[in-house]
Amino acid sequence: MFKFGKSARKNGFKVVIAGAGGAAHLPGMTASLTSLPVFGVPMNTHALEGKDSLLSIMQMPAGIPVGTLAIGKPGAINAALLAAAVLALSDQRLAKRLEAWRASQTEAVAKRPKD
């Protein structure tokens, strides 16, 4: 983790998504080693259903930001979409693909709920 965090930018990474459960220190430790955006995804744990992970990831000290997403699969999906949105700021092709995907998501919602 130390090697990855310290070399992520040099190795071409632009965003980091780190999932963690329990003590959930991986996102915060990674954020302390890089200036890249780090998004933390709390994993669902048996003890507290991921609430412990959520609190661990979101309670970082000032100066070590970690974007914290929802617990489990929804958080992982949203972390990927958020990372894509950040990358799309400097990649017009990706921006167009993301906009198209979001439009298709909107179109898939029924205008009127089915009975």
* Residue fraction in strands: 5-15%
Number of helical regions = 5
**Regions with little confidence, pLDDT below 50 for 5+ residues:** none
Average pLDDT confidence is 92
Percentage of helical residues?
40-55%
Number of strands: 3
Cα shape: flat
Q: Could you give the order of strands across the largest sheet?
A: 1-2-3
N-to-C terminal Cα separation, in Å? 51 Å
Radius of gyration: 16 Å
Question: Quick one: biggest sheet?
Answer: 3 strands, parallel
Structural category: mainly alpha
Instruction: Write the element-wise H/E pattern from the N-terminal end onward.
Output: HEHEHEHH
Task: Give a verbal description of the structure.
- The chain has 115 residues and is mainly α.
- It contains five helices and three strands, in the order H-E-H-E-H-E-H-H.
- The chain has a three-stranded parallel β-sheet with strand order 1-2-3, with helices on both faces.
- The relative contact order is 0.14.
- The mean pLDDT is 92.
Features:
three-stranded parallel beta sheet, mainly alpha, 115 residues
SSE order and pairing:
Layout: H1 2-7, E1 16-20, H2 26-33, E2 38-42, H3 51-58, E3 67-68, H4 73-88, H5 92-107
